[in-house]
Amino acid sequence: MNNKKLIVAIMLVLLASNITMFILLMKGHDRGHGPKTIIVEKLHFDDEQIIRYDSLIQLHRKAVNKNEAIMCNLRCRLFEQLKYQQDSAKIDSIITIIAQQQAKAEHINYAHFLEIKALCKPGQQKEFDELTLILARIENNAPFIYICVNLLN
143: burial class by Cβ within 10 Å (0-12, 13-18, 19+)? Predict the structure, then answer.
């Protein structure tokens, strides 16, 4: 009987944690005021620009997801090293590769914003320049939730 109660208790805790994670993820993705909405509204994109921007977003997300999956895998490899005799050369090597991937992430994001800038018509360039401060805040406040299983799928 105690085993059944323990299993039920574990299932309830897992269910509660899944519900909490779902709520947190949904809260972090407020679609009405996300980066896309802010960029489209501030730059006054027309329909054609929005279509081209949507394509850029898809390519950007694909590149970001791939890079995050690599970084997640590397972090998992790094923390696996805690189980073994400490090999500082191996640990430093993994950390160096993580740093290179983080640099790649910054390049991916910067290139994405250059592509957005290229979408702008001459009359929108001033708005884009003003938007750069907002874009920096958006990038700095982005949630960093790394769930290896979801990123690797």
Answer: exposed
Q: 143 in the Ramachandran plot: left (φ > 0), alpha (ψ -120 to 50) or beta?
A: beta
Give dist(CA 81, CA 72) in Å, integer. Answer: 14
pLDDT digits (tens, 9 = 90+) for 74-100: 999 999 999 888 888 999 999 999 999
Is 5 exposed, middle or buried (CB count within 10 Å of its CB: 0-12, 13-18, 19+)?
Answer: exposed
pLDDT confidence band for 15 (50 / 70 / 90): low
Closest C-alpha to 49, from 118, 103, 102: 118
CA distances from 21 to 29, 34, 147, 149 (A): 13, 19, 11, 14
